[in-house]
Amino acid sequence: MRTAAALLAVMGFACFAGPATAQDDVDRLIRAYLDHLERRDGNDLVWKDGTRMRIDDGIKGKSADELLENPDVDDMFAYAYPSAFPAAPPQTDPGRIRNAAFFAKMYGDCAAGGVSKNLVQVDWLPRHKGGRVSINRINGVDRKLAAVSAELDALPEPLIRYLIPSAGTYNCRAIAGTRQPSAHGYGIAIDLNTAFSDYWRWSKVGWRNRIPAEVVAVFERHGFIWGGKWAHFDTMHFEYRPELFPDR
Ligand SMILES: [Zn+2]
Asked: How many domains does the chain have?
């Protein structure tokens, strides 16, 4: 009986534990990028080369725009990335918040020419002659994208039209309408066929998606998040963000 009571107590605790704490977020970040990150020390994230980055800037109650424009390291976890395919239009932008200093240190600063040297070519759906795409080799993103490509290449033929031609990977630019670098500037993102893309800036009908769930599932299995799960949706867009998948 004591065991059962203890188990119930543990379950009760889990139920009332509430949202993830900053500690959980930082642990998750370190686990996702073990090649680069070493530990947390107070409010600092400590990199393997000794670099320290402040985790929480102490600014409370940032608006959605402020989170996008001026996020600290912990703000990247402001919205949980949902595992389920959207049953209704998303209300938040999980993964769209990126701390530029964090990603520039990891992948390079494209504006300073720091990303090109890390780019390698990956065959995109070679069975279907999808051409080659440039992707960052840091963190093995190139190998992850090659694994995605191999799985997509084996999907039923009617799904292939969504995948080729790719609308591009590396592109050193800001997110439209912001000063924040795009994930494409780090060489960790890929866009699928624009013919089946829906984008919040161009949409007249609100959230809409034509990308099949099977395609999204393949990317997510390899640590890529999907822009179709954002309120500011961009359904052809995928980017490597393993820290947003909690069970890895
Ligand atoms: Zn994109």
From this structure: 1
Tell me whether residue 169 is in a domain: yes
Alpha carbon distance 14, 8 (integer Å): 10
Residue 43 falls inside a structural domain: yes
Contact present, 38 and 30 (Cβ < 8 Å): yes
Confirm whether 2 is domain-assigned.
no
* 59 Cα to the center of ligand 1, angstroms: 29
Residue 12 lies in a domain: no
| 166 CA to centre of ligand 1 in angstroms | 10
Cα 71 to ligand 1 centroid, rounded to whole Å: 20
28: containing domain: 18-244
- Cα 45–Cα 50–Cα 54 angle in degrees, nearest 5: 25
The pTM score is: 0.90
- pLDDT digit string, tens, across residues 14-41: 334 444 567 789 999 999 999 999 999 9
Cα of 234 from ligand 1 centre, angstroms:
7
Ligand 1 center from residue 170 Cα (angstroms) = 9
| 3-class DSSP assignment, residue 125 | coil
Residues surrounding ion ligand 1 at CB below 5 Å: 191, 237
Say how many Å lie between the CA of residue 184 and the centre of ligand 1.
6
pLDDT tens readout for residues 126-164: 999 999 999 999 999 999 999 999 999 999 999 999 999
Q: How far apart, in whole angstroms, are the C-alpha atoms of residue 189 and residue 84?
A: 21
Q: How far is the CA of 239 from the centre of ligand 1 (A)?
A: 8
